[in-house]
């Protein structure tokens, strides 16, 4: 009777050994499946490879251009203006007659787009005295459109800290554009200077920077150069919302012409 028991004992031991080995194999296979990708033991399936190929463009494609047609009353176009007394509105008869609000109205009328305006401009201002000290606040507006109108005061060499040599002005303008592009998604339009002896020199610097960064430029020179015919300059002594005309700053007609000129550079931005 003991011999058969001994036989069964060996049988059970053998079965247990086999089960132990199988358990080990299963554990190893499970570990391999779990860490296969990590250990580089598998190749992606055709389906996953296809999915990866389709997903790749989303990760590498540049940020899509701003969809200007998506603006609405709930998401108005944010227009941030940077400049000197011209952008403030000297010497229009009323505050809403300056070129900045006039440009905003034109965009709304022509593109059926509501516009929210932030104006950081100051009388006598330059990039160094107006733009750089307010950069954080400018970024905070999250602008869609920025107009930059500087260089007129920089061209007056004996007026520090507003003045800047042509080379320094170009460096400041370059830095301003780089800062705006690094911290906002704004489209940027540059304006040339207004009616100064050195306007041509500074306007050339504006054009050089614009070409380098692929920006559009609103050329104001034809407006003030033809002021006798188009009435672009304010009349000396004429009342305005900020004081009296000086024969140098724009009149209502001048601001309207500036807004029209700037809009010609803004308009193409609405076409992808």
TrEMBL record:
Residues 81-257 form the SGNH hydrolase-type esterase domain. SUPFAM superfamilies: SGNH hydrolase. Pfam families: Lipase_GDSL_2. Gene3D superfamilies: SGNH hydrolase. Signal peptide: none annotated. Keywords: Hydrolase. One of its GO terms (molecular function) is hydrolase activity. It comes from the Bacteria. InterPro entries: Ester_Hydrolysis_Enzymes, SGNH_hydro, SGNH_hydro_sf. This is SGNH/GDSL hydrolase family protein. It comes from Schleiferilactobacillus harbinensis. The lineage of its organism: Bacteria, Bacillati, Bacillota, Bacilli, Lactobacillales.
């Amino acid at each position: 009777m003991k011999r058969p028991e001994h036989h069964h004992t060996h049988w059970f031991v053998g079965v247990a050994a086999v089960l132990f080995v199988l358990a080990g194999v299963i554990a190893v296979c499970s570990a391999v499946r779990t860490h296969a990708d990590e250990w580089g033991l598998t190749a992606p399936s055709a389906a996953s490879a296809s999915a990866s190929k389709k997903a790749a463009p989303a990760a590498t494609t540049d940020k899509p251009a701003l969809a200007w047609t998506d603006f609405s009353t709930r998401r108005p176009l944010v227009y941030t203006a940077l400049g000197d007394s011209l952008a403030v509105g000297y010497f229009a008869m009323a505050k809403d007659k300056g070129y900045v609000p006039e440009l905003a109205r034109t965009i709304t009328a022509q593109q059926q787009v509501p516009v929210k305006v932030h104006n950081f401009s100051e009388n006598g201002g330059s990039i160094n005295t107006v733009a750089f000290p307010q950069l954080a606040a400018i970024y905070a507006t999250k602008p869609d459109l920025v107009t930059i109108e500087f260089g007129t005061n920089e061209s007056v060499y004996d007026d520090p800290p507003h003045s800047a040599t042509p080379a320094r002005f170009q460096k400041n303008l370059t830095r301003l554009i780089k800062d705006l592009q690094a911290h906002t998604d704004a489209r940027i339009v540059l304006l040339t200077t207004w009616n100064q002896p050195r306007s041509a020199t500074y306007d050339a610097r504006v054009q050089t920077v614009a070409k380098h960064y692929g920006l559009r430029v609103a050329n104001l020179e034809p407006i003030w150069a033809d002021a006798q015919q188009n009435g672009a300059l304010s009349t000396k002594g004429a009342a305005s919302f900020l004081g009296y005309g000086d024969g140098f700053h724009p009149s209502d007609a001048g601001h309207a012409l500036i807004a029209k000129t700037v809009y010609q550079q803004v308009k193409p931005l609405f076409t992808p």
